Amino acid sequence: xxxxxxxxxxxxxxxxWGAVGEMLLAGLDLAVREVTLFAAVGFLIFxxxxxxxxxxxxxxxxxxxxxxxxxxxxxxxxTPRRIAMFVPAWEEAGVIGAMLSTALARLDHSSYRLYxxxxxxxxxxxxxxxxxxxxxxxxxxxxxxxxxxxxxxxNLNTLWRTLCADDAAAGTVTRAVVLHDAEDVVHAAELKVYxxxxxxxxxxxxxxMPLIDPAARLVSGHYADEFAESHGxxxxxxxxxxxxxxxxxxxxxxxxxxxxxxxxxxxxxxxxASLTEDYELGLRAAALGYAACFARVxxxxxxxxxxxxxFPFTVATAVRQKSRWITGIALAGWDRIGWxxxxxxxxxxxxxxxxxxxxxxxxxxxxxxxILGWGIAAGVHALLRTPLPxxxxxxxxxxxxxxxxxxxxxxxxxxxxxxxYGWREGLWSLPRAVVGNLIAMLAARHAAGRYARLLAGRxxxxxxxxxxxxxxxxxxxxx
Length: 479
Known about the structure:
Largest sheet: 7 strands, mixed
Helix content: 55-70%
Strand order of the largest sheet: 4-3-2-5-8-6-9
Structural class: alpha/beta
Order of helices and strands: HEEHEHEHEHEEHEHHEEEHHHHHH
Radius of gyration: 27 Å
Number of helices: 14
């Protein structure tokens, strides 16, 4: 074969491979542009949605002033009402004793009783609760009929039936049921808040303030950032616009007539098929016409009356917890409780916000893929010495708006966290935003699998994580 033929074939091969390379590069550029467009438009919609919340809260604040009220200004009844506190417990031997002892020592109210729900196959927790109950008859140990774990709602329903039987036998009337978890640090004045407000508001929720573990500041602290935003502003706005107020499962009081009505309507006050029975209870009660109050109240020393607790402090445990929330609220909640009153725009808006987590995770994944794709495309174009395609004027405007909305969001994040925890934690909230995104993406994947198993008929169960209680006197004094 002569040299001219060989050269011709080489040139042909180079032309073919060059054309293939150009097609692949063009495909990469197109894919990156489309993913960028998808993420950019999605973030613009979500950013504007968050901006509406900011504007709505600011308008409410300007019109009505501070959302915090002083404890002394509440309408306290002359005779304290009887209150029952429900504490469901499964494998909580490590924290339940300290929690109950602390609550008994702290709570400033003359008429209350703590009902602790245990399982017959959890001897360690039963032993600890029995020891505390032997010292104080305000502790009522309730051992359910079924082995654990069932669901938290099943445990709560057992406590409810026990309370009803106790009231009937003693001829007493319990005015409200308060929910707490086995790791909660209760505020001394919280029962006074419920007692003062429960007459006009059949459901009362006080803020939740996650404790930050200095050894796991990035993971445990991101809960503090999220609750500072949610319970500092969003829940206040939600109550102000008349949307149903979901309960947080801790630090909330429910009038007994609400639980009676829910039992009559649904067979039990707490839905045992739900992974997020607290969230659903608040919305189901709203559907029955019961108004809720989100109470931001200062004690006599000026401190916020709130429930404090350590949340998960490892990525794995945080992912497990967040996946349960996503499954119960954003996925299962869609078909379990629907959209509420069809004519109530505010209700639809808030439920849409509750259920946007999976879409937000998809957008996050798309955004990170777009960033990676632009990096790869820029590298390939640099090697080939070809120009990187431009974004286009419209895309540039959208990205500029998103950058402004992101900066606005981070400023609000810093401000709300700093207001609740101090400026140093406010600064930590900025890198924790990235950690929160990572946890959300991992949790969404787990939530999808969990939801698929629910759809396949697998019964829900109590998927809890190990808890920690601040045990030293110095720790407790600062909470």
